[in-house]
Model the fold of this input.
Amino acid sequence: MINSTLCYVTQGDQVLMLHRTKKKNDVNQDKWIGIGGKFLPEETPDECLLREAYEETGLTLTRWKCRGIVTFLTNGPWEGEYMYLFTADGFTGQLKQCDEGDLRWVSRAFVNRLPTWEGDRIFLELLWQDAPFFLLKLRYDGDTLVEAVLDGKKIK
Done:
């Protein structure tokens, strides 16, 4: 299992989304996701969050919150993952081009119309509802979500 971060940076009713179009052999190819990535050795979740945010966007996060931990499991070619899920609403700097895709500010109401993972819709709804810290297990068979367990209760 790998460790990673995922962050949804907000500004009013807008959220910064990354359209993954530029990276080869990308499990997220053509999907819209938040920003983040894999931990470096001995890196903490918040250190990874801040590094990845700056590397991918050029923004320095100044206010963020860990909202939950998502466990991704798959029987496909991709390794399982523990993902620390964050939101951020404070930052400095200017957006830059990202070498993994195109960054866009998108209305939160519009995000569900974009191509995303089915499981992402579950945790995004929790984020938008300002749910308390949660644990979410998502099991995929290829691109299909086959199981979702929120705080120990099966929801799919």
In short: The mean pLDDT is 92. Strands lie at 2-11, 14-20, 32-33, 60-74, 81-92, 101-107, 134-141, 144-150, 153-154. The CA atoms of residues 23 and 100 lie 5 Å apart. The two ends are 22 Å apart (CA to CA).
